[in-house]
Design a protein that fits this description.
With 254 residues, the protein is of the alpha/beta class. Helices cover 31% and strands 23% of the residues. Helix 1 runs parallel beside helix 2.
Length: 254
């Protein structure tokens, strides 16, 4: 019998959309929530977890960020990530679109049927931006067309302008957040409207969560470090948010 996994949802639309896709195809449920300062668990959780749009140092995860400081650094061998071979030295060669878009490919899940739905998918994590930046146009097309095979999304970028995508972000509040409140999860992302356009079940998990771990969240420049081990200890998740800047959460000591 195929092993089941529990999903860790993080605090944004990319993780939520990605969890929904995984549930549609694999049937895995969200039984953890991670806001980068705390990890919450449901009483229903009983399986090994997968971090969704979360760059875990250990264990299964699927994400879209650069996680290696240099060629000396190692990536998590259980991470599904198009940027596993990218470092801060090759940062401009990175895949700069969403985890959700990547999951449409690896799960072989159909793209949204409407142009507006396709624009929503491109707007998540500002996945459209590379098309309009001369420094990233070639690598953006490489990933979107050659790697993912989504030429129809490339045509959407050609048809619309940056302001059109910004309007989509505002319309559905795609930059909104998900947060823990009184045992449950809340969001200001417009889930009902997304569900109507995308035909996917966009709603918060209707279960109770309990905090099981606390973290210290750190953002700082990379200086002389060449590996994540040199950077700090007890790191739970880590991602480069700019070429020479890193965000990570380390487990708080008791």
């Amino acid at each position: 019998m195929q092993q089941k996994y529990d999903l860790i949802l993080s605090n944004d639309i990319d993780s939520l959309y990605s969890c929904i896709l995984i549930k549609q195809v694999k049937g895995y449920e969200v039984n953890y929530f991670y806001d980068f300062k705390n990890l919450y668990q449901s009483k229903q959780s009983q399986n090994e977890y997968i971090g969704v749009d979360i760059d875990l140092m250990e264990g299964y995860c699927i994400s879209n960020h650069v996680t290696r400081l240099s060629e000396k650094d190692k990536c998590n061998p259980k991470a599904y990530n198009l940027n596993n071979d990218v470092t801060n030295n090759t940062y401009k060669q990175k895949y700069s679109m969403s985890t959700a878009l990547y999951l449409h490919k690896i799960l072989n899940y159909p793209l949204p049927a409407t142009e507006e739905g396709k624009m929503i998918l491109l707007a998540i994590d500002a996945g459209y931006k590379g098309f309009y930046n001369p420094d990233f146009q070639d690598i953006h097309k490489h990933y979107l067309v050659d790697v993912l095979g989504f030429e129809e999304l490339y045509y959407i970028c050609q048809k619309y302008c940056i302001d059109d995508f910004i309007s989509i972000i505002i319309k559905y509040n795609l930059n909104g957040k998900i947060w823990f409140n009184n045992g449950g999860l809340q969001t200001n992302i417009k889930l009902k409207e997304l569900q109507e356009v995308l035909g996917l079940p966009f709603f918060m998990p209707k279960i109770k969560f309990t905090k099981i771990k606390e973290f210290e969240c750190i953002t700082r420049p990379i200086t002389n470090e060449k590996t994540k081990d040199e950077l700090d200890s007890n790191i739970f998740s880590l991602a480069l948010t700019r070429k020479n800047y890193v965000n990570y959460s380390k487990i708080k000591e008791e």
